[in-house]
Amino acid sequence: MTTFRRIRNIFGSKATLALSYVMLSGAPSLSRGEVEARRIHVNGDVKARCFDFVRPALAGLTTLSMTYVYLLWGNGIAKRTAPSGADNFCYSSCMIAVVDYGSGNLQSVLNACEAVGSEAVRTDKAEDLRKADGIILPGVGAFGDGMRNLKEKGLIEVLTEEVMGKKKPYLGICLGLQFLAERGLEHGEPVRPGHPGGHQGFGWIKGTVELMKPKSLDFKVPHMGWNSVKITKQSPLLEGLQESPVFYFVHSYHFVPDSSERNAVIGVAEYGMDVTAIVQKENLFGVQFHPEKSQAAGLMILKNFFNLVQSHA
């Protein structure tokens, strides 16, 4: 049984979200003190840090000793007091398939999914994608390598069937957003007469994936670190977020939509140029940043996606 699930069964969902905020906030731009000083915004309310939630359960302890016990010994306490059958506990009967195609470490995505109460399954099997209620496709690395891995595993056809045919909710993270494009120009064939260049993508949203070219040399490529995102259109994926939420980015290429698909862009980051940060087209959702590394705002994105999956199921 994981620590998230133990804490969830003892102290409830608020404590779990708080704990996940601390555990998933390892991005290098923030110190531990800064991370602990932040507050968590969930469902429009400001939730206190993790020990504030569990303090009523152990009223005899001071705040400092409470924090010490919770963070250092919490795992042992949970193990001794978790109710039987807790391994089967989850918030939702919906199942999310997190696609494993050999591009990146998926464990942080799975941890974040569990932290917000989703039953997420890591898989590279077509039958799991068919059983799933929603699909998350994360990934880091080169566009062409990722598409080749998906093709070799026989996943492109089943993804198209389930997402475009059956309209299952899809969330692409980083490369998973870029794959929505018609082509990616990273390390691909050069553009020449009779050849569009690059590598073929899903083609679910018209556009290309191109190298970032900021207007100033002050903006280094790759784009790596925290960046605010301007919300250009409201979406269920963005419910509960502040006006200009901040997310963690790591990428050198970005999605450039066709002029006919401009309405699919619902969030833009400014990094010496406009960077497509969030897209939505019907059941298709994509984020260029990493929600699993983006602390409270990232967890909210995942939570909202799971709500969408539940409403669709």
Description:
This protein is an alpha/beta fold and 313 residues long. It has 2 domains: 3-88, no CATH class; 95-312, Rossmann fold. It is 34% helix and 25% strand. It is built from 11 helices and 15 strands. It has helices at 3-11, 13-23, 32-37, 50-54, 63-81, 107-115, 126-131, 143-152, 156-165, 175-178, 295-312, and strands at 40-42, 45-47, 95-99, 119-123, 134-137, 170-173, 183-189, 198-200, 207-211, 223-231, 246-251, 253-257, 265-270, 274-281, 284-287. A 9-stranded mixed β-sheet has the order 4-3-5-6-15-14-13-10-11. It has a 4-stranded mixed β-sheet with strand order 8-7-9-12. Helix 1 (3-11) packs antiparallel against helix 2 and helix 1 packs across helix 5 (63-81). The two termini are 27 Å apart.
State the end-to-end distance.
27 Å
Which stretches are low in confidence, meaning pLDDT under 50 for 5 or more residues running? 13-91
- Assembly category: single chain
For this structure, the CATH topology of the largest domain is Rossmann fold
Reading the helices and strands in chain order gives: HHHEEHHEHEHEHHEHEEEEEEEEEH
Largest sheet descriptor: 9 strands, mixed
List the helices and strands and how they pair.
Blueprint: H1 3-11, H2 13-23, H3 32-37, E1 40-42, E2 45-47, H4 50-54, H5 63-81, E3 95-99, H6 107-115, E4 119-123, H7 126-131, E5 134-137, H8 143-152, H9 156-165, E6 170-173, H10 175-178, E7 183-189, E8 198-200, E9 207-211, E10 223-231, E11 246-251, E12 253-257, E13 265-270, E14 274-281, E15 284-287, H11 295-312
Parallel strand pairs: 3-4, 3-5, 5-6, 6-15, 7-9
Antiparallel strand pairs: 1-2, 7-8, 9-12, 10-11, 10-13, 13-14, 14-15
Helix pairs in contact: 1-2, 1-5
